[in-house]
């Protein structure tokens, strides 16, 4: 629809309010001016005296974490909140005292490098946010200058009360009250994609009093309204204009960051600015999530701190005793000159000397703690996220959407998921509705079969049968309709044949209702005449398309009318009919229905209503139930087929009845009280009754491509899948069958509140009695279910199915643990009719009850709580908007991509991070223990084994890059084998690669390496001459040799631990060793005042001497032998699952389909879901494997 034609359209009464009328004099407006409703805006007078007293926020918006003034203190505070960084800060400060065994500079520089790198990363991220803020704050908008002219002004300079002119395709700079627009009746179209992700246009309309406002020079008004809040969909206020008071509603509010569409311009008054706007009020930070591995890593750090303090304490006690012996034993350590010693070695003050030694030891042994661990992990996780984002196998070409890791904190958590909690609509299904069947006047129409029906027929082993005029006949798949949203086939209805049906008059009313009862906007192509629709939901779009295709084309909407072209059953020609639109009673989740009140061309007042069966059947009149039984039967059949159903009904209204309703409705709409919505619902309840049933619609929400295959792989990986949906139980169950969550022979434990006792209590209306009986019933059903599962001895598969009403009681504090025990013991869990809050509560129950990693996946605003509650939230960037994506940790376009995200990237990230952390502790313990052993060798005198800069640069330069390369590139198994053998994923779920046993194993390996390096070096170098002059190996030679051995050992250990070598890993491993020799040359060439003990030690002492090379070779091989032997024995005789797959690949059996099938079946148990398990259960009953 072109904007030129739209300007003639009037929409004053399309929606369910009459916004232009002044509020009744006796209306309760006590809320305005009270708590929460204190905002007063002087429109067109932003600088008046009264306005200046009110210190409202400016329109400057900042999303940055820091400012130029706060960056340094806040960023430093963030860094030193980490206990390891704080410890290194304390040791750095102590290094300036005489306690330090090394120079202060060598201690401070590595800390500055590590902290600086993290701060630079934080600064760059915040700078990007700042650039976005600058771009937004400097956008321009036309602001009224008071004399009728407008001036381009940047957004940040806007004030509350300014009048702005926003033009087509511009964003609204603040929250505005709409005054008028380029349309005659002051409507405008708004796109809210930036707020809620919805692409359909919203219709807004000003008050009638300001609709004709064009000359703004003399415009003055006072708006009194609610205080700033985060509710996007509510607004309560009044406007005082020309001594009249008018009520304001959300229909007059234009929100910041939404866009003006299909409207030349609007005038608006600024109400909320900057951080007071609703969109900014909504932009709260998502809950902070940390992976279980990261939390465990903190505990390991604390353990190492304990070890460090223990080593320092033992050494200090020994040192104190030996120092005292120097006095009593005749100066055993004569070389320390105890008679002339200062406090550090004074035998007379041995206890104090021990205390000082304790502090010195804390500084000396600090190398047990890996200073670069945190920053290295952050770098690795960011790079891992880049690989996830750029994986072409998770790119959805149709929508041009790649995967997007919105946070890198949880990468390894992707490899440990125990339970997936999934939404259904838009997540497992497409949320792209197709009209496929209907029931009119008790007759079912539509021959199409859904994916669910095909799965059911396959499950039952029976052919699909069509029931039609010619009796029952086998189904042959018809040619698919080319019309999006319409997949209906029935010759009794198509091509105008419905006019020959027995109840053609009811069919006519049925499709008229579909063509009239909606809020869709038609768009007529001027060249082809083809009509398309802008609808608020896929369901509504499917209904108007179905009506069009079957002869009732909605093509025009005006201020107060809806026009359709329909087939006249008498003449057989198309005729245009116009219905005067009086009110629209909108759909919401509480009402579960929508109605319109129209006047037809004969003058009849009609209420047309469509809604859920749970609310519609009870509203039927006694004489309107002629086809109730048949319709209920058809609705149940449609639900069994996985279809979404709505009931259609109507009634005629008398003039007096409508007049009374309209008065009450207008009064409720103009109410300023907080319970305005309740008042409106109460009024609509009175008119939406005594309806006459027409029939039911059935639309299909198809399974997304690849969903059954993905669920099958996830099930083989041992991951449990729970479905949490708002749909009816029958629909959810059949979707479960279609995607193989349920299978034939699986026993279903159904928990519902349908007992005669509860139904009778509901009729009596005793709320307390109903609640008590319901709770007892749910508890009894859960107890019986647990007994049923216990009696099976894990030989049968169970599915738990529970509805929302029962779930309310199952989540009670005294029942929820029993419910969780039952749910965990079942193969599948489906929660139907679940509210968003219940979804979040179930997620929390599973997360806290199992203490295992939970992943929630959804696509709509109703899934946000669930995504934020789970350990990992996955947002589907589908058609329900972007709220789920904006609240998620990772966004993907299709459910099927979850398979690769978890089984490939999840497994790799978990393995890489686990191995990386273990290796970090290994290399630091190897290095730290050589320092400890040398100090023990030197009678705990506080003498370091190595040069100051050798100590400082170990973690930062010589051993840091190989571990980062491992974290980014290593693969124990290729992506193809990860997907081929899903059970490999259980290594992460069971946490076998980061168990305490494995962690302590790596630490023990470090201790063994340190012992071998130290004792072999000291033994080989100590007793005999080191060079041809007969000189023995001095302290600096021993230190440099040991350090060389440590660098070689830890880098070669990395080479042994890596499963997948790349060029980068070769460069960083062997380059790290080469860098050590280059550093030794360069540092040794410096003056002795700088190089100290390293002065020319390599050139003059080490390089010319063959002994140095022999010792290095012998020590390195000896230190690596224990790990190599252990790894070889484990790989050969006790392989882990990844080791078994590596053997399969090595032996060339990866392409043997029979052998691979046999290996994969190890993951299939009686409780496994998916079509593979279903197929095995059918052909060969599953034994407990």
From TrEMBL:
<feature type="binding site">
    <location>
        <position position="587"/>
    </location>
    <ligand>
        <name>ATP</name>
    </ligand>
</feature>
<feature type="transmembrane region" description="Helical">
    <location>
        <begin position="1041"/>
        <end position="1060"/>
    </location>
</feature>
<dbReference type="GO" id="GO:0005886">
    <property type="term" value="C:plasma membrane"/>
</dbReference>
<dbReference type="InterPro" id="IPR032630">
    <property type="entry name" value="P_typ_ATPase_c"/>
</dbReference>
<feature type="binding site">
    <location>
        <position position="863"/>
    </location>
    <ligand>
        <name>Mg(2+)</name>
    </ligand>
</feature>
<dbReference type="InterPro" id="IPR032631">
    <property type="entry name" value="P-type_ATPase_N"/>
</dbReference>
<dbReference type="GO" id="GO:0016887">
    <property type="term" value="F:ATP hydrolysis activity"/>
</dbReference>
<dbReference type="InterPro" id="IPR023299">
    <property type="entry name" value="ATPase_P-typ_cyto_dom_N"/>
</dbReference>
<dbReference type="GO" id="GO:0140326">
    <property type="term" value="F:ATPase-coupled intramembrane lipid transporter activity"/>
</dbReference>
<feature type="transmembrane region" description="Helical">
    <location>
        <begin position="999"/>
        <end position="1021"/>
    </location>
</feature>
<feature type="transmembrane region" description="Helical">
    <location>
        <begin position="107"/>
        <end position="124"/>
    </location>
</feature>
<feature type="binding site">
    <location>
        <position position="423"/>
    </location>
    <ligand>
        <name>ATP</name>
    </ligand>
</feature>
<protein>
    <recommendedName>
        <fullName>Phospholipid-transporting ATPase</fullName>
        <ecNumber>7.6.2.1</ecNumber>
    </recommendedName>
</protein>
<keyword id="KW-0812">Transmembrane</keyword>
<dbReference type="GO" id="GO:0000287">
    <property type="term" value="F:magnesium ion binding"/>
</dbReference>
<dbReference type="InterPro" id="IPR023214">
    <property type="entry name" value="HAD_sf"/>
</dbReference>
<feature type="binding site">
    <location>
        <position position="859"/>
    </location>
    <ligand>
        <name>Mg(2+)</name>
    </ligand>
</feature>
<feature type="binding site">
    <location>
        <position position="725"/>
    </location>
    <ligand>
        <name>ATP</name>
    </ligand>
</feature>
<dbReference type="InterPro" id="IPR008250">
    <property type="entry name" value="ATPase_P-typ_transduc_dom_A_sf"/>
</dbReference>
<feature type="binding site">
    <location>
        <position position="424"/>
    </location>
    <ligand>
        <name>ATP</name>
    </ligand>
</feature>
<feature type="binding site">
    <location>
        <position position="540"/>
    </location>
    <ligand>
        <name>ATP</name>
    </ligand>
</feature>
<feature type="binding site">
    <location>
        <position position="425"/>
    </location>
    <ligand>
        <name>Mg(2+)</name>
    </ligand>
</feature>
<feature type="binding site">
    <location>
        <position position="839"/>
    </location>
    <ligand>
        <name>ATP</name>
    </ligand>
</feature>
<feature type="binding site">
    <location>
        <position position="610"/>
    </location>
    <ligand>
        <name>ATP</name>
    </ligand>
</feature>
<comment type="similarity">
    <text>Belongs to the cation transport ATPase (P-type) (TC 3.A.3) family. Type IV subfamily.</text>
</comment>
<feature type="active site" description="4-aspartylphosphate intermediate">
    <location>
        <position position="423"/>
    </location>
</feature>
<keyword id="KW-0547">Nucleotide-binding</keyword>
<feature type="transmembrane region" description="Helical">
    <location>
        <begin position="300"/>
        <end position="321"/>
    </location>
</feature>
<dbReference type="InterPro" id="IPR023298">
    <property type="entry name" value="ATPase_P-typ_TM_dom_sf"/>
</dbReference>
<feature type="binding site">
    <location>
        <position position="425"/>
    </location>
    <ligand>
        <name>ATP</name>
    </ligand>
</feature>
<dbReference type="GO" id="GO:0045332">
    <property type="term" value="P:phospholipid translocation"/>
</dbReference>
<feature type="binding site">
    <location>
        <position position="644"/>
    </location>
    <ligand>
        <name>ATP</name>
    </ligand>
</feature>
<dbReference type="InterPro" id="IPR018303">
    <property type="entry name" value="ATPase_P-typ_P_site"/>
</dbReference>
<feature type="transmembrane region" description="Helical">
    <location>
        <begin position="83"/>
        <end position="101"/>
    </location>
</feature>
<comment type="function">
    <text>Involved in transport of phospholipids.</text>
</comment>
<dbReference type="GO" id="GO:0005524">
    <property type="term" value="F:ATP binding"/>
</dbReference>
<feature type="binding site">
    <location>
        <position position="863"/>
    </location>
    <ligand>
        <name>ATP</name>
    </ligand>
</feature>
<feature type="transmembrane region" description="Helical">
    <location>
        <begin position="920"/>
        <end position="937"/>
    </location>
</feature>
<feature type="transmembrane region" description="Helical">
    <location>
        <begin position="1106"/>
        <end position="1126"/>
    </location>
</feature>
<feature type="binding site">
    <location>
        <position position="726"/>
    </location>
    <ligand>
        <name>ATP</name>
    </ligand>
</feature>
<keyword id="KW-0067">ATP-binding</keyword>
<keyword id="KW-0460">Magnesium</keyword>
């Amino acid at each position: 629809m072109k904007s030129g034609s739209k300007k003639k359209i009037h929409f004053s009464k399309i929606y369910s309010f009459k916004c232009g009328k002044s509020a009744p004099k006796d209306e309760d407006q006590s809320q305005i001016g009270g708590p929460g409703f204190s905002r007063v805006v002087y429109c067109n007078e932003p600088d008046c005296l009264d306005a200046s007293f009110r210190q409202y926020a400016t329109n400057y918006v900042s999303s940055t974490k820091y400012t130029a003034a706060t960056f340094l203190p806040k960023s430093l505070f963030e860094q030193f909140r980490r206990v390891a960084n704080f410890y290194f800060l304390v040791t750095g400060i102590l290094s300036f005292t005489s306690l330090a065994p090394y120079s202060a500079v060598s201690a401070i520089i590595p800390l500055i490098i590590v902290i600086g790198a993290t701060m630079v990363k934080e600064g760059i991220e915040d700078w990007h946010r700042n650039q976005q803020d600058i771009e937004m704050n400097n956008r321009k908008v036309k602001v009224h200058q008071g004399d009728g002219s407008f001036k381009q002004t940047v957004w940040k300079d806007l004030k509350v009360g300014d009048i702005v002119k926003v033009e087509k395709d511009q964003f609204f700079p603040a929250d505005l009250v709409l005054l008028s627009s380029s349309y005659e009746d002051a409507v405008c179209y708004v796109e809210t994609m930036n707020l809620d992700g919805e692409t359909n246009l919203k219709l807004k309309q000003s008050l009638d009093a300001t609709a004709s406002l064009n000359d703004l020079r003399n415009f003055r008004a006072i708006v009194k309204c609610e205080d700033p809040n985060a509710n996007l969909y509510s607004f309560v206020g009044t406007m005082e204009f020309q001594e009249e008071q008018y009520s304001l509603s959300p229909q007059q509010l234009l929100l910041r960051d939404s866009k003006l569409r299909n409207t030349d311009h609007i005038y608006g008054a600024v109400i909320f600015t900057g951080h007071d706007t609703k969109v900014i009020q909504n932009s709260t930070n998502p809950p902070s999530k940390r992976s279980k591995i990261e939390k465990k890593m903190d505990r390991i750090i604390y353990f190492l701190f304990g070890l460090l303090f223990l080593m320092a304490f033992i050494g200090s006690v020994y040192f104190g005793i030996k120092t005292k012996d120097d006095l009593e034993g005749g100066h055993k350590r004569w070389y320390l000159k105890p008679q002339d010693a200062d406090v550090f070695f004074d035998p007379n003050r041995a206890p104090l000397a021990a205390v000082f030694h304790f502090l010195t030891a804390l500084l000396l042994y600090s190398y047990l703690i890996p200073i670069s661990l945190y920053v290295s992990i952050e770098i690795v996780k960011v790079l891992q996220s880049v690989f996830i984002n750029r994986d072409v196998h998770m790119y959805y070409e149709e929508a041009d959407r790649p995967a997007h890791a919105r946070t890198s904190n949880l990468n390894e958590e992707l490899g440990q998921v125990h339970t997936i909690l999934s939404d259904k609509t838009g997540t497992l299904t497409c949320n792209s509705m197709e009209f496929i069947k209907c029931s009119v006047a008790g007759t079912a129409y539509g021959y199409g079969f859904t994916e669910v029906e095909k799965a059911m027929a396959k499950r039952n082993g029976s052919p699909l049968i069509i029931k039609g005029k010619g009796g029952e006949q086998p189904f042959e798949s018809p040619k698919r309709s080319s019309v999006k949203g319409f997949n209906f086939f029935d010759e009794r209805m198509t091509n105008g044949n419905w006019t020959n049906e027995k109840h053609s008059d009811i069919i006519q009313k049925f499709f008229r209702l579909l063509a009239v009862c909606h809020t869709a906007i038609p768009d007529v192509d001027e060249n082809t005449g083809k009509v398309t629709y802008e609808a608020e939901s896929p369901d509504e779009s499917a209904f108007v398309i179905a009506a069009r295709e079957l002869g009732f084309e909605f093509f025009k909407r005006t201020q107060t009318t809806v026009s359709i072209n329909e087939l006249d059953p008498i003449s057989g020609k198309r005729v245009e009919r116009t219905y005067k639109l009086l009110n629209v009673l909108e759909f919401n989740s509480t009402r579960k229905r929508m109605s319109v009140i129209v006047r037809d061309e004969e003058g009849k007042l009609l209420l047309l209503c469509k809604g859920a069966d749970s609310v519609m059947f009870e509203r039927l009149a006694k004489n309107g139930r002629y086809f109730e039984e048949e319709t209920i039967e058809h609705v149940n059949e449609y639900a069994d087929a996985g279809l979404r159903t709505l009931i259609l009904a109507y009634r005629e209204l008398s003039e007096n009845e409508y007049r009374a309703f309209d008065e009450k409705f207008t009064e409720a709409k103009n109410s300023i009280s907080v319970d305005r919505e309740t008042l409106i619902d109460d009024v609509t309840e009175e008119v939406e009754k005594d309806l006459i049933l027409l029939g039911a619609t059935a639309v299909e929400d198809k399974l997304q491509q690849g969903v059954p295959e993905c669920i099958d792989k996830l099930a083989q990986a041992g991951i449990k899948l729970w479905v949490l949906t708002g749909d009816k139980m029958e629909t959810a169950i059949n979707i479960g069958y279609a995607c193989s969550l349920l299978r034939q022979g699986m026993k279903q434990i159904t928990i519902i509140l349908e007992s005669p006792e509860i139904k009778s209590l509901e009729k009596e209306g005793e709320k307390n009695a109903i609640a008590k009986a319901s709770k007892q019933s749910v508890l009894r059903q859960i107890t019986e279910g647990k007994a049923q599962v216990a009696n099976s001895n894990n030989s049968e598969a169970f599915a738990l199915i529970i509805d929302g009403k029962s779930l309310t009681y199952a989540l009670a504090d005294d029942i929820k643990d029993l419910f969780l025990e039952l749910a965990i013991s079942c193969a599948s869990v489906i929660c139907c009719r679940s509210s968003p809050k219940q979804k979040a509560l179930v997620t929390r129950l599973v997360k806290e009850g199992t203490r295992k990693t939970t992943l929630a996946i959804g696509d709509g605003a109703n899934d946000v709580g669930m995504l934020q509650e789970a350990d990992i939230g996955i947002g589907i960037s589908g058609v329900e908007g972007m709220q789920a994506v904006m609240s998620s940790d990772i966004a993907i376009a299709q459910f099927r991509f979850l398979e690769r995200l978890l089984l490939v990237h999840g497994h790799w990230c978990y393995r890489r991070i686990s191995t990386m952390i273990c290796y970090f502790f290994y290399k630091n313990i190897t290095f730290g223990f050589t320092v400890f052993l040398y100090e023990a060798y030197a009678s705990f005198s506080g003498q370091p084994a190595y040069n100051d800069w050798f100590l400082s640069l170990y973690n930062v330069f010589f051993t840091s890059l190989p571990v980062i390369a491992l974290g980014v590139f290593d693969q124990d198994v290729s992506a193809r084998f990860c997907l081929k053998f899903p059970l490999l994923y259980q290594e992460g779920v069971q946490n076998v690669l980061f168990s305490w046993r494995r962690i302590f194993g790596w630490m023990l390996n470090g201790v063994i390496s340190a012992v071998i390096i130290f004792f072999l070096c000291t033994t080989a170098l100590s007793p005999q001459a080191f060079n041809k002059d007969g000189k023995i190996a001095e302290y600096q030679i021993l230190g440099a040799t040991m350090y060389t051995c440590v660098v070689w050992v830890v880098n070669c250990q990395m080479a042994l631990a890596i499963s997948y070598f790349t060029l980068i890993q070769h460069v960083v491993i062997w380059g790290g060793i080469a860098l050590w020799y280059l550093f030794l040359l360069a540092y040794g060439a410096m003056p002795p005042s700088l190089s100290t003990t390293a002065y020319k030690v390599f050139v003059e002492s080490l390089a010319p001497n063959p002994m140095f090379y022999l010792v290095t070779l012998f020590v390195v091989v000896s230190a690596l032998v224990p790990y190599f032997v252990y790894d070889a024995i484990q790989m050969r005789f006790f392989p882990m699952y990844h080791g078994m797959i590596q053997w399969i690949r090595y032996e060339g059996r990866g392409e043997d389909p029979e052998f691979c099938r046999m290996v994969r079946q190890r993951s299939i148990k009686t409780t496994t879901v998916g079509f593979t398990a279903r197929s095995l259960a059918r052909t060969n009953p599953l034994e407990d494997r």
